[in-house]
Amino acid sequence: MVWIGQFFNSSLGAKYLMALTGAGAYLFLIGHILGNLNMFLGADAMNSYALTLKTLPFGALWIARIGLVFVFGIHILMAIKLTRANKSARPVSYSKPSTVQASLASRTMPLTGLVVLAFLIFHLAHFTWRIVAYDGPLIDTSGRDDVYTMVLQGFQQPVISMFYMLAMLLVGFHLSHGAKSMFQTLGLNNKKYNLLITTAPPLLGWVVALLGVSIPIAVLVGIIS
Amino acid sequence: MNLTLHVWRQNGSKTSGKLVTYNANNVSEDSSFLEMLDEVNEGLIANDEEPIAFDHDCREGICGSCSMMINGVAHGPERHTTACQLHMRSFKDGDEIYIEPWRAKAFPIIKDLVVDRNSFDKVIQAGGYVSVSTGGVPDANAIPIGKDYADSAMDAAECIGCGACVASCKNASAMLFVAAKVSHLALLPQGQPERKNRVLNMVKTMDDAGFGNCTNQYECEAACPKGISVEFIAKMNRDFLKAGLASKD
Ligand code: HEM
Ligand code: FES
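Output (structure tokens, whole complex):
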């Protein structure tokens, strides 16, 4: 079994993990934002959606949570490993650097990733652990956990809303490179599909990111109240 | 035309270097970039100064020796052109030109613009060959090869090992080079018996040499004087995945 360690410790093995966990995070993001659009349907829809997630059979919520810890944990560990190796591979930089075609998004992946990570920690502390900016417990009229009001009260604070919006835009930006890069990393590059691969997944990333931005905006302008 | 050059001067891998400014006057636009440097060097020699060291051999774009960053771009501003095939008509009177060596931990500087590209040779030694038993000369067309495979193998084999991919990569990754060398044999029947170990060993040697990791920015493809496609990197990624999971050891 030593080979598994060696395989994933190689440059390409680490890159596969980066791509697979990036794809996992991408799919999670799509599902998570789509679910959160329940905010637009009102308190009843949002709170029953939240209750459904919490009462999924077979401990599915916990299985998913553990999966997410692995997905993000490995993504971050590989990001650190690969980025460090990349930095050390060029100890002296060019006096006159130049870029021919690398996109800004591709050149700032570690940075956008790091801000998103800071956001993720805040987001968990805010809505999952409820240890910042939360005056609970909030219970709705049917006796359910009132997730709707929690989100509403959270996003009515402009500074918090701004951070959520910034993070969403940065995720969209991160994915504008990541969501096509992962295909190349996994060896999927074929003239027949390249146009599709390089446009559709990043575009979907932007759509999801903007849907994410739409929730705090809707609260701030009073569409959700 | 008259130019101002800022050239990296460094005595060896242990010492530190710096950019030194030189004037190149009355440069003909018909001369090549290396001929322009030759003239600057003649001036330096006439003044009893040390000439600028740079690598060159064929001067016709096939050996891959000439290696220099010209204004931050490997081999200079023209696409699909080695530094030796770059002509001064690509510049204009009064231009300032920065000339630096390839910069990568795996390519230590020997002197000025000359770097040690032995790490590329090590990658080739790790699998960039096919082992053939000697015997009678086989019939040239005894093994049928589909034209698209042959064409693709030739595209990969065009790599001249100059190192521009490493130099231009933001991460000093050698993956375009290694992918080209892995692929041109993986595409041919003769390359099949050693295919799995070839990709595993060449990638391992690449990693050990201290190159960075590809982040799919494709600066290498833009800089490659032979226009090697990043499709080969995807192909190497597939081959390594298959070999890593399916090889016997
Ligand atoms: C919702 C959160 C995130 C999503 C959806 C996501 C998605 C992705 C995807 C799909 C890739 C492409 C993988 C590849 O090129 O093969 C990627 C790469 C990367 N991510 Fe993330 N990521 C997220 C969070 C993070 C975090 C928290 C960090 C850093 C701590 C990070 C750092 C990176 C880095 C450094 C790369 C490699 C860049 C490259 O190879 O060009 N990401 N990400
Ligand atoms: S000197 Fe041979 S390729 Fe430039």
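The mean pLDDT of chain A is 96.
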